[in-house]
Amino acid sequence: AEEKSLNFLEEIIEHDLNAGKHVSIVTRFPPEPNGYLHLGHAASICLNFGLSKKYGGYTNLRFDDTNPTTEETEYVENIKNDVRWLGFEWKHELYASDYFEQLYLFAIKLIREGYAYVDDNNSETIAAEKGTPTTPGTNSKYRNRSVEENLQLFEEMKAGKYKDGERVLRAKIDMAHPNMLMRDPVIYRIKHAHHHRTGDNWCIYPLYDFAHGQSDSIEHVTHSICTLEFVPHRELYDWFIEKLNIYPSRQYEFARRNISYTIMSKRKLLQLVNEKYVDGWDDPRMPTVSGLRRRGYTAASIRDFCDRAGIAKRENVTELSLLEFCVREDLNKIALRRMVVFNPIKVVLTNYNEDNEFVSVEDNPEDANGGFRDVPFSKELYIERDDFMENPPKKFFRLFPGGMVRLKGAYIIKCDEVVKDDAGNIIQLNCSYIPESKSGNDTSNIKVKGTLHWVSVAHAITAEVRLYDRLFKVEDPSGEAGDFKDYINENSLEIIPAVYAEPALKNAVQDERYQFLRKGYFALDKYSTEEKLIFNRTVTLKDTWAK
Ligand code: ATP
Ligand code: MG
Ligand code: MG
C-alpha cells in the first residue's frame, strides 16, 4: 500500500516522541454540551482519537461545561452516544465542572502572587478600557488593590454577596499588550445560575480561557488540538500554565471543517430546530451525526470522509459531494439490493399462466458472500412509468411498443399493446414473456440492452419514501447577505407517500442498508412502523449535481 504522508500534527507528535518529550500521547475531545455533534465535531473526534490510537496513548472525553446557562444533560447523553457510534471509546469521561474547586484554588494562587485582581467596573467600562489593536488600553482603577483586599472580595463573590455583573476577577497581565486577549482578561464572572451538574454550589464561573488549558493540564493532555480561532488564545493558555507552574499541555490549531451547502455552527443549527425548519437535531438533512445516522449514513463512511478531507492549517471548504462519494463507496459494498417501483405502470403478461413462481435474485453483486432471495413473479407486474415510452427517441433501451427488455432476475418481455383510457392516458401494457429467457438459464439467444426493476402487483407492499436534497441553496449560507435562513432550500424534502416494493422489504430493519435498484440507497426511518414503512434516501446512486 502507498504510504500516506504525515499531516502537520503527526509531524509534531513524531518529533515530540523522537525527542523523548513524551513516551505516549494524551488527547481530548472537549464538546460543550449545548447541542448535538455535527460533522465538524466528527472531524475533531476522528483526529483526536485517531492520533492517540496511532501513537499509543489515549483520548479523554471532556465535557466543557463551564457555562451553566446553555448546557443540558440531554446533550451529554447524545454526545456520548454519537462518539461511540462513530466507533471510538474514550479513556475517561470527564467534566470541566468537576474542576471548579481546583480552578478556584488556581485563581486564589494567582491573586496571592499578584497576578489577578477583582474589578468592580461593569462590562462596558472594561470593554472601553481595553483599547484597540493599535492603541493601548487603560489600567482599571481597581488594578492595584492589595492581595488581601482581592482575596476578600473574591471570597465574597464566591459567597454570593454580589449580583451578576457587579464584580469580576481579572488576570493582571498588561493593558498595552499587542494581543488584546492578554489585556487583563476576565477569568471569573458572577452568575447566579443553576448548573446541570453542580447545581447551586457555585455562583462564580470561570471563563473558557481560565478553564480549558488548566483542564488539559490537570489531565496531562500532551497535545490539545483546537480550531484556528484559538490561535490568539494560545499565548494566554501558556501564560496561565507558566504562572500556575502546572503540567505544560500544549495547544495546536487546525482549520475547522466547513462543508459546502450546509452550516456547522451549533447556535445556527439550534435555530433551525427551535424555529421548526427541520424535524429536530436528527432531521436527515442536518449535518449532525444523529441526522446523518437517521438518513442512513454509516459510521465507516463518516470516518472515511474525515480521513479523505484531511486536516489543514488554513480555512477551507470541503465539498459536500465528497461526503456523498464516501457513503456511496461504503453502501455499494454493504447494501442489500431490492426492487421498488416509485411511479408504476401495470404490465400484464398475456401468455404467462404460471402459478406461484419465484425468481432468485442476488442480494449484493459486490459482496462475494452475498446471498440470493426469492422474489415472487406473476402475470401482473409494475414497472416504472418512466421506463416506457410510446414514441421513444433513438437509443432508448427501455420499453416501447414492439420493444424488448429484461426484467431483472426474471424474463425478457416484449411490449405488444398499449392500453389507454378514454382520455388517452396509458393505463396498461400488454406484453408477452419469452419462457426460455429466464435469468441464469437463458437459451433464447435474444439480446436486449435494457434491464428494468419490477414488482409483482399481487405481492407488492407499499412504503413511504423521503427524498432529500441539500439543506441550503447556496454554497456558503453564512457568508451571504442577510440571515442564513433566507437561503434554506424549500425543496430539500420530497415525500412520496406510496411506492411499491418487493415483499422482502417487509422485514427491513434499522441497521440494514438497502439499494433500491436504479433509485438510490435507502434506510429505514426512525418513525417507520409495521403498518407504515418509511424509508429515507441516504444518497442517489450517482452524483446528480454535476449535470
Ligand atoms: P460550534 O461553533 O458548532 O458551537 P464549538 O467549537 O463551539 O462549535 P464545541 O462543543 O466547543 O463546539 O467543540 C468541541 C470540539 O470540536 C472542539 O475541540 C472544537 O474545536 C471541535 N470542533 C467544533 N466545530 C468544529 C469544526 N467545524 N471543525 C473541526 N473541529 C470542530
Ligand atoms: Mg467550544
Ligand atoms: Mg460554540
TrEMBL record:
Gene3D superfamilies, from UniProt?
A: HUPs, Ribosomal Protein L25, Chain P
Family affiliation: Belongs to the class-I aminoacyl-tRNA synthetase family.
> Which reaction(s) does its UniProt entry say it catalyses?
tRNA(Gln) + L-glutamine + ATP = L-glutaminyl-tRNA(Gln) + AMP + diphosphate
**Gene from which this protein is expressed:** glnS
Q: Known Pfam families for this protein?
A: tRNA-synt_1c (PF00749), tRNA-synt_1c_C (PF03950), tRNA-synt_1c_C2 (PF20974)
Annotated tRNA synthetases class I (E and Q) anti-codon binding domain ranges read 451-525
**Class of the enzyme per the UniProt entry, highest EC level:** ligase
In this chain, ATP is annotated as bound at: E32, P33, N34, T227, M264, S265, K266
Where does this protein reside within or beyond the cell?
A: Cytoplasm
Q: Where is the Glutamyl/glutaminyl-tRNA synthetase class Ib anti-codon binding domain?
A: 335-433
Residue window of motif 'KMSKS' region: 263-267
- State the protein's name: Glutamine--tRNA ligase
Q: Which residues participate in L-glutamine binding?
A: D64, Y208
